[in-house]
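Quick start: read one record
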Amino acid sequence: MKELEILVYSEQPFGDKIGIPEDTRVEINERLSLNIKRQLPGLDLEDLILNLDETEEEIHYQYTKLTQSCRKLCVMWYASEQALEAEREFYSTTVQDAPALFGDDAVKIHYHLESFVLLARSAMDVATGVIHKRLPYELKKNRYDSFNSLIKDLSKVEPKPEIAVYFEDLKKDPKSWVSIISDSTKGRSLRDKLAHQTDFPLDYAELNPPSEKESPIVWLDKENWLPLESFVNTLREGVIEGFMELEAECCSSKP
């Protein structure tokens, strides 16, 4: 039944950034006492799930969740690439010292950027459906369908695991990938604002004075922003790394 590499992942699902490179995996493994073996997310969990001593129905459920979440990671990455391409196409034809984003250009760019953020959170939400079952900790709930709930409850485990500290530290940084898609220490995430309050906060500002050219930026809250490309890379690469860190925790032999 192994399907991830055949039916979900293309030859290069994440462009030239195909998961976590070996040197980064070594650093993560040493820092968090983990054992990330594979370069693409989900492959270690796939092996684990298919060898579980559980009912066929339960294995099917967990495998389905894993497949869905990994496919969402690929769709998230595709949306981010389409967003960057759409913005570059607009920027190449506009007055660059005062870009005026409206009409079809605005619809196209906002569509891809908003989809990107919502898919990033959705991929992690779906992943919790299988990840929480394999984590070597006693959690409060029997089922999770919220990434935010999972990392909150990980922080309540005693003694607190290093993976929980990892997420807590990211939550303190308003520019981290976790703060973009999950509640930060200062309030609602950008993902929650997009789902309930506002449209995508894309703006233009002069980043390299005295160039007299304005570049795309993303407002994360009233005080913090990132250049568009930095925002995209921070979120998409962070989500994949976070997924793989949780996966490694699931596949760890630690008690």
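The CA atoms of residues 86 and 109 lie 6 Å apart.
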